[in-house]
Each structure stands twice: as C-alpha cells, then as structure tokens.
Design a protein that fits this description.
Blueprint lengths: L3 E5 L2 H9 L4 H11 L1 H12 L5 E7 L3 E2 L4 E14 L4 E16 L4 E5 L12
Antiparallel strand pairs: 1-6, 2-4, 3-4, 4-5, 5-6
C-alpha cells in the first residue's frame, strides 16, 4: 500500500522554486502548513483500518532537489480509544513523504511510504 495526494500550490511557491531562490524550502514549508489537511488525510488513509485517530501533526522542513522534487518528514500521534474494550492508547509515529512539484500546472504531488500488505492466511 502506498498512498498519494495532490493539491494546488500558490504562484509564490512556484516562482521561488523556478528561480531557485534561497529560502524556497521555507516558502514550501509554509505552503505545506497551509495545506496541512491534505497531509493529514494522507496519513489517515494509512491508519484507517486500525480505527486510529491521527493528531498532533508536525511537518518538518522539506529537503529540495534541483528539479522541484524532494521529501519531508512528518511526526504525528495515533490514538486508539474504545470504552467498551477499555482501550485508550497513544503512539508517536513518523513518516517520510516524497513530493514532486509540477511547475507548469502548479500541482504538488505527495507520495507516502510503501507499506506492504499482508496476504490473507490460507485455511
């Protein structure tokens, strides 16, 4: 399983990436923070089966390549609560998310980590 997301970024980010300006990574970080909901949705898709709640999402500064691609780390917490089963847990997690910016269309593509899915057991 490998989840993906995408969203449109601002013209300021596109121009700073095209020009290779110093501080383009800070500009991109601000854009990611402004669109944190899309990053959270990507994380939730990894943890939905376990009925976990994703919260306290913190996005680290992105590492940029010359071609507009790169990665950033996300630190977050997963909480499980079920009063009937007397379950109340919280775990800290982190994920490395790859990204690529299409400078022509202004779309930022996010790709989460690859997590192999377990095949069903045979009887």
């Amino acid at each position: 399983m490998q989840e993906r997301a995408q969203f449109e970024i601002s013209a300021l980010v596109i121009e700073s990436l095209k020009a290779g300006l110093v501080g383009a990574d800070d500009t991109l970080l601000n854009e990611l923070l402004s669109n944190q909901k899309q990053v959270e949705d990507l994380l939730i898709s990894y943890h939905f089966r376990s009925r976990g709640r994703v919260y306290n999402v913190r996005i680290d500064k992105p590492v940029l390549n010359d071609d507009g691609s790169g990665f950033f780390n996300v630190r977050y917490s997963i909480g499980h609560f079920n009063a009937c089963a007397d379950v109340d847990t919280s775990e800290d997690e982190r994920m490395k998310i790859q990204f690529e910016v299409n400078l022509q269309t202004g779309i930022l593509f996010l790709v989460g980590e690859f997590i192999p899915e377990r095949e069903p057991d045979e009887f």
